[in-house]
Each structure stands twice: as structure tokens, then as C-alpha cells.
Amino acid sequence: MNATYILLSMASLLLIIFAWFWTSLMARTLPFGVRIPPDRVNEPVIQHAKRDYHAGLLVILLLVAAIGWFFSRYSSLLFVNIAGLFGTMLLIYLNFYSARRRISQAKQRGNWYSGLRQVVMADISTNQTPYHIPFLWYVPALAIIVAMVVIALVRYPVLPAQIPTHFGADGQPNQWTDKLVALWTLPLPAIFTTALLLGLARYIPTARQQVDPANPEADVAYQHELRHRTSQILLVLATVTNLVFLAVSLLIFGAIPESNANAVLIGIVTILLLVIIGTLVYLTRTIIQRNQHQYQAQNNPKFVARDDDRYWIGGMFYYNPDDPALWIDKRIGIGWTVNMANPWGKTFIIAIIAIILAIVSITLFVR
């Protein structure tokens, strides 16, 4: 069992583990992405939906494991693991959507927002006093890209005309590329990814901050801290991602012998796992702080956040042509998503798709 198989198998398991704790990442007034008034957070239907959601995850775990074991006897293990990864994501979403629909129907039947004064509250102080990340936070990610280019230039004269640029699951090269083409194409994924992550890290602290009108002061304090930490996490993620690209470049440009390819893959898997563990620790700490802020101040019984479920497609994708904001707080979990009705939001999504297609094209077609 090599590093690629281990990584794909663990990815499916980690998806289910994260989905299990997903309910802990939900704000109490947003169970499964459904906006509810604060006085409805203890409704029995919500508790029943969470119970059935967790039971569904156990069924998904057993189902994916059984199907994967069966088909691995007749097909490529790599193909089975990739198909299992996408199948796991689809089943998790269907399980989530079932719980969401159940709570949404209960809200509509019970007319939970009847007689309540719905408002939209936002904090614009971040635009007046923007948060600036010290330049030293950007240095590691940028330095690694420079190192990749320098290594390529130094190694270029001693490289053969054709160099391996892709390695199979067994760690052996199975694709070669002209060294001049590899010289300028290999750094591109790192450059695109770094530009995206650094741009997000700089922009997120200035994005519009929607505030919970039932407890605005605590919510503003929590979100300011969250945005600053998220920007720092994105810069660390850019550095870690570039370390992975650097390891691959060292292998491709011959600085690391091909016989050590599996060791490099194992190192990449280890780095990714450490990033996942670190992110989970960060999320846990952030959730604890959010819960503390949420109940430090007395809730305001006069106002509740507007019922905006109609703008959220499937509970995850925000589409509101009347909202000029580009970045919106995610309905579930921690972070932000784009307003898909905003022209810049559409441009951002197209750019992400283009980057992914470019990376895949470079991997598959550059020989």
C-alpha cells in the first residue's frame, strides 16, 4: 500500500469525521443552514435531525467501505479510491440536505418568524480601520517560489532533454516532458495558488461583516478576531502548499533521486495531514471562543436576523442580485463564500475553475 492509496483512503475517512463534527460548527440559529429565531434553537425537530444525520454518516461509512472493498477486487485501487472520495462527498451532502429540508419544513409549518421584527445589521468599521498583515507573513510563501525558480535554473544545464514530470502510484515516472517546457510550466500552479491565497488573506479582513442583531457587541468582537486569524491561516496554508510544490520540483529537476519518490510522497502526505490536524485544532478553538462571545452579553429580544433562506441555494451557495457585497459569511462552518449573483463573484468562480483546468492540463498534456 503506497502513499497515494493511503492518502485517498484517509481523505474519505477524514471527510466523514469532519462531517460528523460539522454540527458543532453550526451557529445555534443556523442548524444545517436554516435560519431560525433564537427562541427556537431547542426545538425537538432540530435534535432529531442531528441524531438522524449522525446515524446517516455511520451508514455512509459502512457503505463506502463495503463498495470500495468489493470493486477493488475487479478494478484499479486508485480508481476505486478516487470514485469513493467523490461518492463520499455526494452522500454526505445528500444526508446534510435531508436534515436541512426537515428543519426548513418544520419552520414553515410552525411559522416560526410570525410577529418577530427582522433586521439586517452590519459592521462597517473594518472598512474605516482596515487590518494590515505585516509583510513578514508573506515572505515564506514568496521565498519558496523564488527557490523553485532558482533550483530549476541551476539544475537546467545538467538535466537530460526529457525529464520525468509525473510519477505513478508506485513512485516510478510514467510521463516525461521537454526540460525547457518544464522550466516555465512547473512553477505556474504554485504562482496561481499563492496569488489566490495571498489575495484572499488581504481582502477578507475588509469584507462586509454581517452581525447578529440579538447580540451585536459579542458577535462583532468574535468576527474581528476570526478574520484576523483566518488571514494568517491562509498565509500559512500558502507556505505549506508551496512546500509541497517545492518537494515535487526537487524530484522532477533531479535534486532528489527518483528512487526516493515514494519517500517524497510520504512526506507530502505527512505535511497535508499536519495541515488538516492544525486546521481542526484552529476550528475547535474558534468555536469555543464563538460560544463564549455569544453568551457574554444579554440577547436583544426586540430584533432577530432576517430570514434569508431564499438566497441560499441548497443551504450553501449564496445568490442575491440585490446584495452588492462580494464576500458573504458562510451559512455553515467558518469562513466566507462569494455572492454568485455579483459580477465579480462570477468572475472569481470562473477564475478558480480556469486555474484548476490549467493545472490539470499541464499535468495531462504537457509532455
TrEMBL record:
<dbReference type="GO" id="GO:0009636">
    <property type="term" value="P:response to toxic substance"/>
</dbReference>
<dbReference type="InterPro" id="IPR012867">
    <property type="entry name" value="DUF1648"/>
</dbReference>
<keyword id="KW-1133">Transmembrane helix</keyword>
<keyword id="KW-0812">Transmembrane</keyword>
<dbReference type="Pfam" id="PF07853">
    <property type="entry name" value="DUF1648"/>
</dbReference>
<feature type="transmembrane region" description="Helical">
    <location>
        <begin position="262"/>
        <end position="283"/>
    </location>
</feature>
<feature type="transmembrane region" description="Helical">
    <location>
        <begin position="233"/>
        <end position="256"/>
    </location>
</feature>
<dbReference type="InterPro" id="IPR043831">
    <property type="entry name" value="DUF5808"/>
</dbReference>
<keyword id="KW-0472">Membrane</keyword>
<feature type="domain" description="DUF1648">
    <location>
        <begin position="144"/>
        <end position="188"/>
    </location>
</feature>
<feature type="transmembrane region" description="Helical">
    <location>
        <begin position="6"/>
        <end position="25"/>
    </location>
</feature>
<feature type="transmembrane region" description="Helical">
    <location>
        <begin position="348"/>
        <end position="366"/>
    </location>
</feature>
<feature type="transmembrane region" description="Helical">
    <location>
        <begin position="77"/>
        <end position="97"/>
    </location>
</feature>
<feature type="transmembrane region" description="Helical">
    <location>
        <begin position="181"/>
        <end position="201"/>
    </location>
</feature>
<feature type="transmembrane region" description="Helical">
    <location>
        <begin position="135"/>
        <end position="154"/>
    </location>
</feature>
<protein>
    <submittedName>
        <fullName>Membrane protein</fullName>
    </submittedName>
</protein>
<dbReference type="Pfam" id="PF19124">
    <property type="entry name" value="DUF5808"/>
</dbReference>
<feature type="transmembrane region" description="Helical">
    <location>
        <begin position="53"/>
        <end position="71"/>
    </location>
</feature>
<feature type="domain" description="DUF5808">
    <location>
        <begin position="321"/>
        <end position="346"/>
    </location>
</feature>
